[in-house]
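From: lab user (bench 3)
To: helpdesk
Subject: output format question, protein + adenosine-5'-diphosphate

Hello, I'm new to running complex predictions and I'm not sure whether the block I got back is the full result or only part of it. Here's what I submitted:
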Amino acid sequence: MSTILDEIRTTVRAQSPVVYLYSSEEERVLRMVGTVAAEAGAEVRQWSCVEGLAGCDRDATTDPVAALQTVIREDIPGFIVFKDLPPFFSRPEVIRALRDVYYAAKGGRRMLVILSADLAMPETLKKEVHLIEVPPPESEEILQQLTDIRATDAKYNLPDEAIQEVAMALKGLTETEIGHVMRRVLQHESATKEELVDEIFHEKKNIVKKSGYLEFSPPRYGIDGLGGLENLKDWLIKRRRMFTPEAVAAGVPVPKGLLMMGISGCGKSLAVKVISSLWEIPLFRLDMNLVFSGIYGSPEETFHRALRTIESVAPAVLWIDEIENALGIEESGLTISSHIFSSFLTWMQEKPPMVFIAATANRIQALPAEIIRKGRFDQVFFCDLPVAEERVEIFRIHLARNGANLDDFDYKMLTVQTEGWNGAEIEQAVISARTEAYYDGRPFSQRDLDISIAKIVPLSETMEQQIKGIRSWAFSRATPASSFGRRRR
Ligand SMILES: Nc1ncnc2c1ncn2[C@@H]1O[C@H](COP(=O)(O)OP(=O)(O)O)[C@@H](O)[C@H]1O
Ligand SMILES: [Mg+2]
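Helpdesk reply: Thanks, we reran it on our side. This is the complete output you should expect:
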């Protein structure tokens, strides 16, 4: 059965007098409360700031304090659901009246339920109020809803074998959203499984877009566009089927996350983008600068909300780029980032398995040790500067992308010229060669590349010491992303 229903049942058995059900799904949660109440042979009453307390004089009970006092005075039993309470928490009388309800509780005859889409637990009531976050419908509930829709809509023509996949794609949406999506798609007489799944993902992207700080990154980058880094690519290829319904049904453990650290410009961010195309699950980038900006509320709350939002669109990849900026403990903003950091670690430990974290880090020494410790990420890769063979691959990728004829170039020569270069610098050399040649109205050649290469000063020259430091730091802490391992160049 539904785990959330079980959690509510347990709370009833524990005789908690005041429970806070945090959910935007009023109807669904009311139905759950109804189910539990029926099992207990108890009644359900509702309060709203417009209707007052059901069964009482409306005008006398629209005020929350009056309503709460009525509950105590008349010793109302059963489940009493307060629907609009959190906006009133700024009034001390409301907090007091709630506390009075808590202490007036006798032997579990009554449960006061605060039902709200806002999470605004008053600090002073944390001990008294039992908080339950109600997740969106679980697989079983979704399957049930699909079956119901199927029974009522004669046009429903989704084959049995597609139902599991559709249900999985619907995961994370609320019951209402599921209803909307299904009704929209069922309007087309012959909706295929693919159309249905597409529509569902479209809906999910809209939900995330509304958040502002999570950005959808389209699956545009194939694994063939990533040169070198064979160990990393192998790892990704081996896990490409892990998020499919078949793998989940078979109980194959789903990977939790990947941390890629190393020298900048070596393809870490690009590798993250490759994951979503390869695994065919959507990728969302969390903009930590926006989280910290305060535009969306306190950074901690925003971060928490972001994690919940991403859970709601799972299966998904959550990309935290340059994680050290968000989680590194630095003097400035010490408390905020360390709070966020610890809640992130907890979330990583408990998070639903269908969210895959892809984190990248450049200033790796800034990373706290806990994050690298085994168990958080499945794998920690170190991306070093590409060796000669890898540079050839990267050259070929960018030359091809820029419309050059691959046979026109001397790769031996190019690798000698680009000793110690990263992928971004190679790309830059190719692009500027192409730009020069285009200006002259001719195809670009080895000679154009020679010139552009001579103009670029690679990072490895200007940051030699830092790179040495990064290498020796990473040596004992991470697996080389390159199959050429720790070979020195
Ligand atoms: N291994 C690589 N293969 C192909 N292109 C690369 C590679 N490394 C870097 N590049 C090019 O350089 C750009 C910047 O690299 P990026 O992934 O942002 O590096 P990082 O995140 O490690 O700093 C990429 O978008 C890509 O065009
Ligand atoms: Mg990057």
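A quick orientation on your result: The radius of gyration is 28 Å. Let us know if anything else is unclear.
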